[in-house]
Amino acid sequence: MVDVMTPQTPQWWKKPDVKKTAILWVICTAVIGFVGVEFHVRSMVRPASETMSGVISLMRIFTWAAAPVAGLVGAMCITVLTSKRHYGDNPPAEADHEIRNSPRATALWVVVSGILCLFALVTGMIVLQQDNKAVLDTQAIQINVTGQQWVWNFDYANGARSQDLYLPVNKPVVFHITSKDVKHSFWIVQMGIKMDANPGYTTETAVTPDKIGVFDVRCAELCGLLHAYMQTKVHVVSQADYDAWLTAHAATEAGA
Amino acid sequence: MTTLTHKSVAAPGKSIIEKLNVFTALALGIITAVVVWRLSLAFLPQDADGATMFTREDKITLLSMCGWFVGFMTGIGALVGPFRWLMGKDLSHDENMFLAGQDMGPKRYLRYTTDHKVVGIQYLFITILIFFLGGGLAMLIRTNLGHATGGWIHPQAYNSIVGTHGILMIVGTIIMVTGPFGNFIMPIMIGARDMAFPRLNALSFWLIVAAAVPLMWGQFIGGISTGWSAYNPLASQAPLGMDGYIMYICIFAVSTMVAGANITTTVVKMRAKGMTWNRTPIFIYGTVASVALALPAFPVFFLSQVLSAFDRALGTTFYNTAGGGSGWLYENLFWIMGHPEVYVILIPAIAALMEMAPVFTRRPLFSFNVAIMGIAGISGLSALVWAHHMYMSGWAPLLNAPFMITTELISIPTGMLFLVLVGTLWRGRLWMTMPLMSIFALLWNFMIGGITGIYLSDVPADAFLHGSMYVTAHFHYTLMGAGLTGALASLVYWFPKMTGRMFDKTLSWVSFWLVQIGFNVAFVGMFAVGLAGQPRRVESYAPTFNTGNLITTIGAYTIMIGMLVLLYGVISSARNGVKAPKNPWQAKTLEWTVDYPIPLENFDVLPIVTADAYGYGKAKS
Q: Among B579, B414, B529, B545, which residue's Cα sits nearest to residue B482?
């Protein structure tokens, strides 16, 4: 409980408005946390990789970590709004207590927000570390991604080339992304990965799909006239299907 | 004080200063532009064969726009003073009085007038105009996105509308508090007779007018099809309208720098006797933090666009990888401006609400020092966070972690601002007015904007969210939900001082609720489609995003109605509102000690300040 009253007041926690705020704080925290998490999780696409599941649980954690702060502000606002309101063209009498500051409340507030900030940082860093490691995986399938106005091209190690992405399930993949013209951004929506395609440079991102199905690739960086239509599909298939598809396409490429 | 006798200035008719106004400026601007256009058409050599980046049309367009700019600024009279200095003279006292708009009536609003109150009203007018245009474009965007098959606007035009809406609103929100209220109210609030550099004040306003024309011009020569961020190399392949954007930014950046230097100097040097830093109102801190933040940021913006113009017109390759440049250079320059810039918008709006909080709760501001620490902390950190816009650009993956740290640290000083507002409201006697409710609206909207900002600052989560509608909703929550709310409250709060009449109460309430409800409906819908995977800046989308987009469109129309009600309120209240008393809110800052109409130099006798402006409430017994 943040003490925003004069520290000297004896038994400040027994005042009715403090009690009311405390109860409201619990309620507000629960409501905000629950609604916030449900809103995010229900709106978000179903995950098709561990990375995306990680993103969803991060959102869950951050929402719950932020809920008490938002809940306290909300509770105090409700308490204030439901107590002394004054309507009219002239101001009400001035408040009886002159509370210009409260060093204790301020210190507590700063320390708590510092701890929450640190918590968010550490949580984020741990996940970031895993993502960064995945890019260096040399055992992974390597696929070159080339964006151009307004299609994606995928080049596989055996020389196959496609405009729909094919991936085997449960195998780590590293994408090497570049662009032929302007900046694009390679986004596999359900897998929670994104990386810009820059002309003249190659950038990397990595993911391990963990569901069989058809997912979406969308361009997430305005790239001109048909940016909205620069989309394609990812087909995540079993290893056997993937191998079959790859050989078939390598053959057509060679024959062509 | 001598009154100006027009005839005494120059015997054979009017002096040059008296002849110049916005019409001569427009005329001279257009004439110069046309002359430069014909000349460059005639004399510029043809491009070499096969030179893709070396385009004659870009040179002609940019030169003509420069011609417009020089002509307009000459025509408005910006060069009269500097020219006199070159001649070793200065303006006479009478001329200075004329420039200040003494005894001139409404005509002074159409001139290079130096009185800060005139400049404030001019800024208010142009802010309303910008919001009208930018809002209109937003309605086009939302109408187009109302249903999935929508797309009745051609993609090229759509992209241009998105870009123009973006840059108009960015400029509009940058000036919405520091322009009207920073110019009109701030000098009176600190007990000064005018700004430190009155002529620079006029200059900063007319530069914005001069800047607006190239932007509109650009709409007719291909538009700004790159979004407001105008990333290269997309911008180098964009049509000629891009040159309009470049000129607009360059001129606006100069305006911002001029205004920043002026406001900062005014506050540092011209506060009334006894107004120590501890007694300076918090709104002043907010204004200074905002413009001081713009001082280092906007030269970088200026530079980024100059290089962009070189790439387009002169065949340089600053941003062209094939020629040794890099698109990442542009991104860095752009966001070194772009992130401080959001706080340039936000801080004065929040500070204005902090100024109002004690007035409408009849309590002192809670923890004045913490408020200043918060403002200073945000300003300082905001210069170090720019690359969080580039987490997914691939520029420097190793820098993601440090930028994540600086970004998330901003939540601490931001939290301080929440503490100050909530602490002030606590146990206050709420005087239920639109500005007071705006504080609650700000807390609500900025809480949502702030928490969603934490998700976005987290690199792994941003890998999913970046470039989606979620980002769009997030920054609308901060810039509009928090920023615009503060600006609208400021308008209602200071309206009596600026117009002498009260803002119509009913209209202020109606518009408040329409805007706030519409806003929350609109952008919650946008959060949802962003989470579901809709990218930003798309003119059509998959059918799954239908519902969310429809909700957003409905919300957007509600905002539009609310804003139109507000506009009607401004016009009708300014014309036949109830006459305002000197101090309708019983506030304790200095601007409420002067009568309406405020005399040219604000105070007959300069005030002496003996306490801060927040001495509400009895000392506790």
A: B414
